Amino acid sequence: MSDHPEAPVAPVEAYELPYYVAVFTTVRTQDQGGYGETNARMEELVKEIPGYLGMDHAQTPGGLGITVGYFRDADALAQWRSNAEHREAQKRGRAEWYDSYTLHVAKVERSHSFTREQRLAEG
């Protein structure tokens, strides 16, 4: 969901299991009028959902975008999916901003993380 170059370059941490992910992969159209503002609003809105854990986003030079949203449980994900403002943004995305997209939702049953900083501190 984010196009912010100033966003920290670090993945979302591994959470206590289980949790859910929504993987949204996109190819955008040339006309992106209004996308940035709507995207910023969606980022504000999703943070209000109880059970929202965070998101990762990456964009390839060729234009493929991948956003992974992390949610504590299926109820939190359902609340995001049914948010009226989010539904309107989805409609506009299909009409204006996306050439194509896929959405994959999964329950995470295994998760771990690594940071070089952590390893160096452990010795």
Write the topology of this structure.
Elements: E1 19-28, H1 35-46, E2 52-59, E3 64-71, H2 74-82, H3 84-97, E4 98-108, H4 116-122
Antiparallel strand pairs: 1-3, 1-4, 2-3
Helix pairs in contact: 1-3
Explain the overall architecture.
The protein is α+β, with helices and mostly antiparallel strands and 123 residues long. It is built from 4 helices and 4 strands. The protein has a single domain, classed as 2-Layer Sandwich (Alpha-Beta Plaits), CATH 3.30.70.100. The protein has a 4-stranded antiparallel sheet. Strand 2 and strand 3 (64-71) form a beta hairpin. The mean pLDDT is 91. GO terms for molecular function: monooxygenase activity. InterPro entries: ABM_dom (IPR007138), Dimeric_a/b-barrel (IPR011008), Jasmonate_Hydroxylase-like (IPR052936). Pfam families: ABM. This is Antibiotic biosynthesis monooxygenase.
Short description:
34% of the residues lie in helices and 30% in strands. The protein has helices at 35-46, 74-82, 84-97, 116-122, and strands spanning 19-28, 52-59, 64-71, 98-108. Residues 19-92 form the ABM domain.
What structural keywords apply?
Alpha-Beta Plaits, 4-stranded antiparallel β-sheet, 30% strand, 34% helix, alpha+beta, globular, 123 residues
How much helical structure, as a percent, in the residues? 25-40%
Write down how many β-strands occur, each being a DSSP E stretch of 2 or more residues: 4
What share of residues are in beta strands? Answer: 25-35%
Q: CATH class, please?
A: Alpha Beta
Based on the structure given, which CATH architecture is correct?
A: 2-Layer Sandwich
Pfam family, one: ABM
GO molecular function: monooxygenase activity
Domain ABM: 19-92
Keywords: Monooxygenase, Oxidoreductase
